[in-house]
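Input/output pair, single chain:
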Amino acid sequence: MVRPIILVLGAVPAVAAAVVAASLLSQPEIPFSAAVSDDNIEIEYTVHDLRVVSFGVTERVGADRTQILTIQRDGDVRLIVTEGGFPQPTVRSSLTEEEVIRLIALIKETGFMALPEDTFPVRDDAVEYRRHAVKVTLNGAVTKVTWPEQNATDGFIPPIITQVEIKLGDVLERAR
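Output:
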């Protein structure tokens, strides 16, 4: 029979692990500790709604709509939209200091800056699709990642990229 002291000693690490897991699961946000006040960041997020146009023998990819969102460290947000080849007026808005710090923490904590700069190939049968590009300048280091929406590629879009896309997509929607 197992002695009670062994059961108690074995239960202590299990309880500690449960407490740590519960705290991590209850806070799905990236911790603020990754961002420091000296971080200098500029984010440029571009979304192209593309269409393949056929001219008989040749094909060309053209953009129905392009959205360019830029975010500065001071929270200044600018959105430039081009539809049908005609630029719309620039929309300006701002983010709070907390929102900028969350973006910096997301970029730093997820390892986004260490992603390779290669692009994901688009399937040959994709006719209409959305292509995203993020260019991040963080303290002088530049990373640019380009990817199509998941249903236009056979490649796997990493969750790091998807998480950044979701956060920047929210900012883009609010800027409109």
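The two ends are 68 Å apart (CA to CA). DSSP finds three helices and seven strands in the chain.
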